[in-house]
Predict the structure.
Amino acid sequence: MIVPPGSRIGIVGGGQLGRMLALAAARLGYRCYIYAPETSGPAADVSAGWTQGSYDDAVALASFANSVDVVTYEFENVPVAPLRSLSQRLHPNLAALEVAQDRLTEKDFVARLALKPAPYRAVDDLEGLRSAIAELGTPAILKTRRFGYDGKGQARLASADDAETAWEAVGGNPSVLEGFVRFDREFSIIAVRGQDGAFATWDAPDNVHEGGILATSTVPAGPFIAAQAGDAIAMTKALADALDYVGVLTVEYFATAAGPVFNEMAPRVHNSGHWTIEGAVTCQFENHVRAICGLPLGSTALAARHVEMRNLIGTQADDWAAILGDPTAHLHLYGKGEPRPGRKMGHVTRLSVE
Ligand code: AMP
C-alpha cells in the first residue's frame, strides 16, 4: 500500500530514534504523530502530535492507529497483543516484533535460518543455570530474555561459582545463558526491505562498545570485517525475507576467526546507523520511511571516503561548543534534559572526503 507524502505517520515510542525518524519524514512531506507512555520526549520537539498512553492500552493504541495512515515503532519492548488490531497498517510486522523482543525466540528463529548465534541455553531457574553452565562452560554471559538493552539485564560469569550472583543480577527473570564469543571486532548490518521485497544494506560499520554501550561506529570497516560482511548480508537477507520484513532491520554480529556470529537483531533503525544521516546518499531514517510508505528505496551508497559516528553519553554532550569548533563535525543533540551516566544525549559524525 502506498502512503503518499502529505500523509500521517504514527510512531510508537518517542525517544531519539523517533525524533530522527520524524525529521527524515518531514523532509519528504509527512507529519509524524507519537504514541508513548511519557508526557514528552526527544521526538516531541519535531513531531506534529503526541499521545500519552500506555503500551498495554489496546483501545488507546487502536484509536491512535485510526488517526494516522501508517504506524511504525522505534522501540521493540512494546507488548504485541494490544497491537494486533492495528496490524494491517503496522510496519515492521508483528512477527518481527515478537521475534526480536525475546532473546530465546530470536535465537531459536535465527538458528533455524542458519544464522549461527553464540551457543546458548534457556535458563528458568538457578538449577537450570547450573546445568547450562555445565554444558556451555565459562566464561559465559547471562542475559534476560526480555527488556535488555545497552548491556542492561546482563551478568558475566567467570566461573560456575558466579551462578548465584548472576541469577540475582538478572532479577531471577527468565534468561538465556550465552557462551562467551572470542571476537576480534563487532559490526552490524543495517538493512532495509521494501514492500515489494527490494533489499539493500549500508556499508557494515565497525562498532566499538564501552561498558556495554555503543561508543563509535566507523565506515568503511577494516579488512577483517569487510571479508565477512558478504556472509552477514546474506544471513540478514534470509532473516528479512523469512519475516516478510518491511522497514529498516539491524543485525549485530561478532567478527570471529570462524566468520560472523549473530549477536542480536533490532527491528528498527539503530544507533550504529546514525552515521548514514550525513555519510550515505540516503540515511536509515529516510529509507525506513520510504519502505513503510511503499515508496522506492533510496541509494545506500557511501557519501564520503571515511565516516565516524561517536555517541555523546552523559556529560560528554556538555562539550558541544568544542565539538562545533571542528568545522567538519556534525553535531546531533537529542534535547534530553538531564545528562545521567550512560544516557545517550547525542552523537557527532565526522566525514572525510579527500
Ligand atoms: P548485547 O546487549 O547483547 O549486544 O551485549 C552488549 C555487549 O556485550 C556486546 O556488544 C558485546 O561487546 C558483549 N557481549 C554480549 N554477548 C557476548 C558474548 N556472547 N560473548 C562475548 N561478548 C559478548
